[in-house]
Amino acid sequence: MDILKERILKEASVINNDVLKLDSLLNHGVDPKLTMEMGKEFARRFADSKATKVITVESSGIPVAFATALELGVPLVFARRKKTLLGEPDAYCERVPSFTKGIVTDLLVSRHLLSSDDTLLFIDDIIANGDAARGLIKIIEQSGAQLAGIGIVLEKSFQAGGRALRELGLHVETLVRIRSLEGNVITFED
Ligand code: 5GP
What is the pTM of this model? Predict the structure, then answer.
């Protein structure tokens, strides 16, 4: 998505060789028009998915997942991210490392929000190592729902997450792929 590449070049800052700061578009602020364009693009790419729900992880995945769900005309469910020492019998729960926070958190989804009749489209903001995605996939498996595909706004292709999901045979679509952040320079894949 060329418009997204342009906005990333204008607004993102490189924190180090592994981390991009993209607060104005994805992680702290939202451009509603651009977010709707992302949602339309995911809806187009997954038009044949027969998704009954869109699922994401709070909080940065929610705007683009909402836009996608609106375009597809289906509900949205977002996994809560919290650190809990209590058992949550009414929720599916998976413990995952957090890429940016350097801690582990739990992803929780209330059991009543997912059914084995669901076909889920997973939408998220950024993929790095793929831990959040793997956690959410395990929750989907626990629920008995089908996973129709995974749409990610920004893939850092020098990290293993996106590749690992494709190797599992999953349908993964990413709007922008970054090959490198080395030397403080954002280099996109073609
Ligand atoms: P993963 O679980 O794939 O390693 O990391 C995914 C999550 O970590 C994303 O949902 C995103 O919020 C956060 N994340 C990963 N890499 C970056 C990054 O370079 N910048 C920011 N701001 N967040 C990131």
Answer: 0.97
